[in-house]
Amino acid sequence: MVPIGGQPALWHIMRMYAHFGFRRFVLCMGYRSEVIREYFLNFHRMTYDATVQLGTDAVTFHRTEGMVFEEDWEVTLAYTGELTMTGGRVFKAASRYLGDAENFAVTYGDGVTDADLGREFAEHLAGDKIGTVLGVNPPSRFGEFKLEGDNAFGFEEKPEIEDHWINGGFFFFRRQFMSYLNDDPGLVLEQQPLKTLAADRQLRVFKHSGSWACMDTLRDVEMLNKVWTEGQAFWDPSRLPPRT
Fold first, then answer.
1. What residues form DSSP beta bridges with 146?
2. Domain boundaries, the chain
3. What is the dihedral of CA 78, 135, 114, 31, to 10 degrees?
4. What is the pTM of this model?
5. What share of the chain is helix, strand, coil (3-state, %, to 5)?
6. Residue 210, Cβ neighbours under 10 Å: how many?
7. Distance from C-alpha of 41 to C-alpha of 130, rounded to nearest angstrom
8. Strand 131-136 relative to strand 203-208: parallel, antiparallel, unpaired?
9. Rounded CA Rg of the chain
10. Which end of the chain is more exposed for a tag (fewer CB within 10 A), N or C?
11. Looking at domain 3-234, what is its CATH homologous superfamily?
12. CB atoms inside a 10 Å sphere around CB 222
């Protein structure tokens, strides 16, 4: 719920998915779940312009520019435990609300990207792996010395690390992935489930060399607000690849 341009990060992420045709969302809530619940149960009141007739308390909501995806969203607010870790949250929510879906997406809720999630999903469906994860290649946060012994002969500020891919946090899984999960509240998605999936050669990496950012620090949040304010938000649907 960290605000970016006046809207919570979740809203931005869901708009990214909606751009590629995804409409059903399950939010795996825990700590401060009441904040998320209040936002979505009062979504129009929290996001739309409104006209109030004070004599009757009648309220008219006005859709403004940019509010084009939300009307057909289905958002399930699933409480999965205040202390439950990522793997346990996915298991609990999917067990209740996956229904007969054969594939589902998972993301952390704190990262944005201009990756083509529609293409990632299409390649996931066309492949034979249980899971697909977005792999990103962000520049290092720190400058890097080039050394000969203890002597520097070069310096590169925030270099790109060639062929070094990290977990970008946007997953697609086949239903079989549920067998890698359980209801242990201490189950961390990135530990036993993903490590076992990779060891079984069932995890494919969808490489993306474009823009990606997470919200780990106040500095990250300030940067994302800055690019949003300047009209340069790389994750905004107007800048994303067209839906195919």
1. 154
2. 3-234
3. 30
4. 0.86
5. 30, 30, 40
6. 12
7. 34
8. parallel
9. 20
10. C
11. Spore Coat Polysaccharide Biosynthesis Protein SpsA; Chain A (3.90.550.10)
12. 9
Contact 127, 204 (CB under 8 A): yes
The answer to whether 165 and 135 are in contact (CB under 8 A) is yes
Residue with tokens 């870790």: 85
Return the closest-CA partner of residue 106 out of 182, 37, 26: 26
Question: Which H or E run includes 231?
Answer: none
Residue 53 β-bridge partners = 58
pLDDT at residue 153 in the model: 47
For the beta carbon of residue 171, count every other beta carbon within 10 angstroms.
Answer: 23
Residues in Cβ contact with 96 at an 8 Å cutoff, skipping those fewer than 6 apart:
78
Res. 114: pLDDT tops 70? yes
Q: What is the H or E stretch that residue 95 is in?
A: helix 86-97
**For 120-177, how does the pLDDT look when each residue is reduced to its tens digit (9 = 90+)?**
999 999 999 999 999 998 765 545 545 565 555 444 555 555 567 889 999 999 999 9
Under DSSP, the state recorded for 170 is E
pLDDT one-digit tens code per residue, 174-219: 999 999 999 999 999 999 999 999 999 999 999 999 999 998 899 9
Query: Could you report how far apart the first and last alpha carbons of the chain are, in Å?
Result: 30
At 25, which helix (H) or strand (E)? Answer: strand 24-29
∠ CA(186), CA(189), CA(193), 5° rounding?
Answer: 100
